[in-house]
From TrEMBL:
<dbReference type="GO" id="GO:0016020">
    <property type="term" value="C:membrane"/>
</dbReference>
<dbReference type="InterPro" id="IPR000073">
    <property type="entry name" value="AB_hydrolase_1"/>
</dbReference>
<feature type="domain" description="AB hydrolase-1">
    <location>
        <begin position="34"/>
        <end position="162"/>
    </location>
</feature>
<dbReference type="InterPro" id="IPR029058">
    <property type="entry name" value="AB_hydrolase_fold"/>
</dbReference>
<dbReference type="Pfam" id="PF00561">
    <property type="entry name" value="Abhydrolase_1"/>
</dbReference>
<dbReference type="InterPro" id="IPR050266">
    <property type="entry name" value="AB_hydrolase_sf"/>
</dbReference>
<protein>
    <submittedName>
        <fullName>Pimeloyl-ACP methyl ester carboxylesterase</fullName>
    </submittedName>
</protein>
<dbReference type="GO" id="GO:0003824">
    <property type="term" value="F:catalytic activity"/>
</dbReference>
Length: 280
């Protein structure tokens, strides 16, 4: 699958500028609906790097506040703040209504966006996120997110060392250019003190909000039951048990994408094609 680099720019938001990536669409008619694609809790806009080139219309994906090129933006964080930033992106680009897709935490942001700003959303597609998640008692963010959050305080001597760190992640057993671009974009600083752009405070605040916040729960409860939910068949660490183990409990129009885990439902060929088809 060909990797197409997006055009990167920035739009004004409270506290500074939000970085966005834009893909023009797959030779689409001029009236093809634009897609707003929202990434997960420690991710960046290149999480959509395999999906976006397969979508007929234009795709815009922000780096959420505290991540990627938006890593130095101050709070407030939380799903409502991210939803407001996403509306600012639509305003800056002159997009009245968009198909809104959210992966992982991005699904919660997308749901809150649809709940707060229904006139801006033509259709909602949730990708392994956005429905309530149950965590066992006593499980904290470091345990739940594992290496994804552990790396935020780590230092790496080179990009190759960072690649090696990610290649040990069980969900990235098949390494390719799109994953390499995604992880490389996350690094900042200079060798041998490279580190993630992700703001740990933003991650912790958002983790609490998506699990315990009143606004994400209200947004989920307001979703039409025919809202599309694409579920990864395997888990965050490629476990046989998915992040959402019981499709019926999600309460939406669930399609399980077999053979995908929480990451490869976007960054794997089968997952990217399934997500792109749901957006088309």
């Amino acid at each position: 699958m060909t990797v197409v680099s997006p055009a990167v720019s920035a739009v004004p938001v409270p506290g500074g500028e939000l970085t966005i990536g834009q893909w023009p669409g797959d030779s689409a008619p001029r009236d093809s609906a634009p897609v707003l694609a929202i990434h997960g809790i420690t991710a960046n806009h290149l999480a959509w790097g395999m999906v976006a080139p397969l979508v007929p219309g234009p795709v815009v994906a922000p780096d959420l506040r505290g991540r990627g090129g938006s890593g130095t933006l101050p709070g407030p964080y939380g799903m409502a703040a991210h939803a407001a930033d996403c509306v600012a992106v639509l305003d800056a680009l002159g997009i009245e209504r968009a198909i809104v897709a959210g992966h992982s935490m991005g699904g919660f942001v997308a749901s809150v966006l649809a709940h707060r700003y229904p006139d801006r959303v033509s259709r909602l597609v949730l990708v392994d996120g956005g429905a309530p998640l149950a965590l066992p008692d006593g499980v904290d963010i470091e345990t739940a997110l594992g290496p994804a959050v552990a790396r935020l305080s780590m230092r790496f001597a080179s990009h190759a060392e960072y690649h090696d760190f990610w290649q040990r992640h069980p969900s990235f057993a098949v390494w390719h250019d799109a994953i390499e671009s995604y992880v490389d974009y996350d690094l900042t600083g200079a060798e041998p003190e490279l580190h993630s752009k992700v703001n740990g405070d933003a991650v912790r605040t958002d983790f609490v909000d998506l699990h315990k916040g009143a606004e994400p729960l209200a947004a989920y409860e307001a979703l039409p039951r025919d809202t599309v939910f694409l579920r990864a068949g395997r888990g965050m660490f490629d476990e046989p048990r998915g992040l959402y183990p019981d499709p019926a409990a999600i309460g939406l129009d669930v399609t399980t994408v077999p053979g995908t885990n929480h990451y490869t439902i976007l960054l794997g060929e089968d997952g990217a094609r399934a997500v792109a088809a749901a957006l088309s």
